[in-house]
Amino acid sequence: MLNVGERGSGVRRRPAGFDQNFDEIRNKCLKQKILFRDPEFDTYDLSVSYRNLQKNQLEWRRPKEITDDPKFFVQGASRFDVRQGPYLGDCWLLAAIANLTLDDKLFYKVVPFDQGFHINYAGIFHFQFWQFGRWVDVVIDDRLPTHKGKLIFLQSSTKNEFWSALLEKAYAKISGSYEALKGGLTMEAMGDFTGGVSEIYDLNKEQHNLFTIMLNSFQRQSLMCGGIFDSQLPDPDKKGLEKGHAYSITRITYIPLPTSNSIIPLIRLRNPWGKSEWNGRWSDISEEWLNIPQQLKQSIGLKIEDDGEFWMPFEDFVKYFSALEICHLNPGYLDRGQYGVSEGTKWDLSIFEGEWVRGATAGGCDKFKETFSSNPQYHITIVDPDENDNNNMCTVIIALMLKDTRCQSKQKKKSLSFGFYVYNLNTSKSVPKPLDTHFFENNDPLDKVHCSEFKPREVCKRLSVPPGKYCIVPYTSNQNEQGAFLLRVFSEKKNNLAEFDNEVGMVEIDDKIKKLALDSKKSDDSNEKLKKYFLKVAGNDKEVDWMDLKNILDFAMKDTGNTKFSNDVCRCFIAMMDWDRSGKLGFKEFERLLMAIRQWQVVFKTYDKKNKGYIKGFELRPALSSVGYNIKTRTINTMCHRYANKKGYINFDDFIMCAIRLKTTIDIFKEHDPGNKNVVSFTLEEWVEKTFYS
């Protein structure tokens, strides 16, 4: 369990690296006899107006200032504790919270019961959410936004119960603000409450065997929700339904009809508003219930109350709702019963975090043929087929999730359109690593998954494939769309998932680059003339520092028309060639440096064909490879974060700096790895000294 803001939690708070530990903060507040006030989520986070309610009309109150006897729980947690307030459109979140109350084990994972308003009360509460592969503990104070003494957002139907309002505040904090909660898909919150895998079904399209999928999912405790988003659907208002609204699905069942000796599929839903129920067939006021035995009505929990919960036929659900969202608590729920996988199945899980970086690894979809191969690539190997599979096939579930989508929404960033391709590598005897443009031009994908028009933050695909090797390529629809993602791969038998990438290290310099660099050397006035100038500047010790080196390089390059090197580049030149750590270079070291510079110049000009003074970030990997350096995608991302501009371009000075730092880093490592074991050990002092002087 990580604290929010802690390194590795995946959640950035102010200041960077700051983390809040619930027990430590509560004990400190109790000792000092003060109530906690959260500096990380103060009142300024609610900085917008809501439906004519201005900020100056808001008052932040603790529950003890709202009611005389506040309780965290009143007779436990129930879906009826979740009622939407009038000022925030987060019904999607409330639908997920209502579903969460249906499973005690899940609920108390998210809502710890070691807190309340009496014993050890210090104005501090905490909740736990799954955030991109990790469980994170989120701390809040208990000040809640009110208007005229009443809560304006989520509230319980029991006036002195506050667990649900505090849970909403914790989720707002991890999302960036209350405002960030306006509008969304319930599957996002259900995923954050469970760590499960989410699917979304477009009910405007025919869905094969959908009720069976829903029934099996419900029996395996999956969380479900229905949404009405499509304006083209039959007018739901006349039937008591709300447009632009999300409903919790709280039960799925077949009901036998005594009058016809048949069965009807029914769905029970709940409106988070706590009012406005379905009034069509099988509603609370429907005559259909009169023919159902009382014992059966009791067994399915039928209650005729004005509480926002109602039953409706599956046929009408598909007719009036536009989307079904399902969150499976673990990947086994996708297959058991429905697909013949045994109940004892344990799933193997592999996880990778990655990113698309502008100009580096944001290559776009496969229509961008020149850059598509720049996208991150992941190699998966499955050796054994599923047990009891007569066709010797393997079940593989691939889920790709975008990170930080709510915080981006707060910052008015456009949501990414994304997906992934799966390629079969078993048809080729050998393939390049990573896969290159030639491979993609000559091989069709085994499958492709793209986010739907609902723009969910996660796309998921279940495949049945023979044992073998495959490559997953996450992508965004367009080039240079930047974002971070979490890739999860599940399989019944063990899978080996790895980045499909170069091995880091030195390779041979391209012969063409060598030749052009040597030709460049011959075109200089003469090596003797340069040496004479070097010794003149160097003085008695025949060595130069970085300032002298800058002078000499300006002299050496004056006929080539290149921009003068910056002070920082010259300092790094010294560090790169200065093996004795004297801070100076002799002429032999200078000659080797000059040859390296000429090689880098040749490479830069090779990729800067139009002499614009920059190369594209997409060209950085092949450019560095041609001068002898193999690097991984993650390193390319880091380099572009540091050296590329907003358009993903790298100028000559930054390219040189990038090459210097790479060479120096590899040289430092190899100096401490004489046995080529690819593992070294540094003391902190050694590490600081080596990296600082580089």
UniProtKB/TrEMBL annotation:
<dbReference type="Pfam" id="PF01067">
    <property type="entry name" value="Calpain_III"/>
</dbReference>
<comment type="similarity">
    <text>Belongs to the peptidase C2 family.</text>
</comment>
<dbReference type="InterPro" id="IPR036213">
    <property type="entry name" value="Calpain_III_sf"/>
</dbReference>
<dbReference type="InterPro" id="IPR022684">
    <property type="entry name" value="Calpain_cysteine_protease"/>
</dbReference>
<keyword id="KW-0677">Repeat</keyword>
<dbReference type="GO" id="GO:0004198">
    <property type="term" value="F:calcium-dependent cysteine-type endopeptidase activity"/>
</dbReference>
<feature type="domain" description="Calpain catalytic">
    <location>
        <begin position="35"/>
        <end position="330"/>
    </location>
</feature>
<feature type="active site">
    <location>
        <position position="245"/>
    </location>
</feature>
<dbReference type="InterPro" id="IPR033883">
    <property type="entry name" value="C2_III"/>
</dbReference>
<feature type="active site">
    <location>
        <position position="91"/>
    </location>
</feature>
<dbReference type="InterPro" id="IPR001300">
    <property type="entry name" value="Peptidase_C2_calpain_cat"/>
</dbReference>
<keyword id="KW-0645">Protease</keyword>
<dbReference type="Pfam" id="PF00648">
    <property type="entry name" value="Peptidase_C2"/>
</dbReference>
<protein>
    <submittedName>
        <fullName>Uncharacterized protein</fullName>
    </submittedName>
</protein>
<feature type="domain" description="EF-hand">
    <location>
        <begin position="595"/>
        <end position="630"/>
    </location>
</feature>
<dbReference type="GO" id="GO:0006508">
    <property type="term" value="P:proteolysis"/>
</dbReference>
<dbReference type="InterPro" id="IPR038765">
    <property type="entry name" value="Papain-like_cys_pep_sf"/>
</dbReference>
<dbReference type="InterPro" id="IPR002048">
    <property type="entry name" value="EF_hand_dom"/>
</dbReference>
<dbReference type="InterPro" id="IPR011992">
    <property type="entry name" value="EF-hand-dom_pair"/>
</dbReference>
<dbReference type="InterPro" id="IPR022682">
    <property type="entry name" value="Calpain_domain_III"/>
</dbReference>
<dbReference type="GO" id="GO:0005509">
    <property type="term" value="F:calcium ion binding"/>
</dbReference>
<keyword id="KW-0378">Hydrolase</keyword>
<keyword id="KW-0788">Thiol protease</keyword>
<keyword id="KW-0479">Metal-binding</keyword>
<dbReference type="InterPro" id="IPR022683">
    <property type="entry name" value="Calpain_III"/>
</dbReference>
<keyword id="KW-0106">Calcium</keyword>
<feature type="active site">
    <location>
        <position position="271"/>
    </location>
</feature>
<dbReference type="GO" id="GO:0005737">
    <property type="term" value="C:cytoplasm"/>
</dbReference>
